[in-house]
Amino acid sequence: xxxxxxxxxxxxxxxxxxxxxxxxxxxxxxxxxxxxxxxxxxxxxxxxxxxxxxxxxxxxxxxxxxxxxxxxxxxxxxxxxxxxxxxxxxxxxxxxxxxxxxxxxxxxxxxxxx
Amino acid sequence: xxxxxxxxxxxxxxxxxxxxxxxxxxxxxxxxxxxxxxxxxxxxxxxxxxxxxxxxxxxxxxxxxxxxxxxxxxxxxxxxxxxxxxxxxxxxxxxxxxxxxxxxxxxxx
Lengths: 114, 109
What we know:
The complex is a heterodimer.
Chain A: E1 4-6, E2 10-13, E3 19-21, E4 23-25, E5 31-38, E6 42-49, E7 56-57, E8 64-70, E9 73-78, E10 87-94, E11 104-105, E12 109-113
Parallel strand pairs in A: 2-12
Antiparallel strand pairs in A: 1-4, 3-9, 5-6, 5-10, 6-7, 8-9, 10-11, 10-12
Chain B: E1 3-5, E2 10-14, E3 19-21, E4 24-26, E5 31-38, E6 45-49, E7 60-61, E8 72-74, E9 83-91, E10 97-99, E11 103-108
Parallel strand pairs in B: 2-11
Antiparallel strand pairs in B: 1-4, 3-8, 5-6, 5-9, 7-8, 9-10, 9-11
């Protein structure tokens, strides 16, 4: 019954590496989102997309990029990983706002940059 | 700008006691407010939305536009309510949502 799947539960990467976090949803949702979750800071929006090949910056896009080539897949890219990007990354998807629903979240990817 | 404030990082109550998790927001337009919950080792999930005016698992929340608040309440807390709770806001015509820092609720036996 899994609807939003994040490809890795845990990742350990070295400083300077290019990192890809993958997210796939099977609900035909238009909107997809990437957040990072840090204790005491809650969820902070990195990027989101409301259509294929469309992307919008969130509140903390620096050091990240995204790709949405297909409706069901939204990738987060860390161009050159740094230790301050060690975090839990959450992907979410939703229907258009006109349908007034909330988000469906993935189980998260815990990334450690060493 | 959208901003959500949850003033309590930690909240601890005894089983059967009332519980209130506070949420205040800042937004110039018409907001949609949500509460999300994350139980231990589970994914974040929607608890309730102000639009639907529903009660889920005994929890209710009322949007108070005058006080810009959306506090979550339950009259009798249960141990299984122990979790991390996030308040979230979405602008009326926006796709993106902003979350508060979260409140960890612990219900003691």
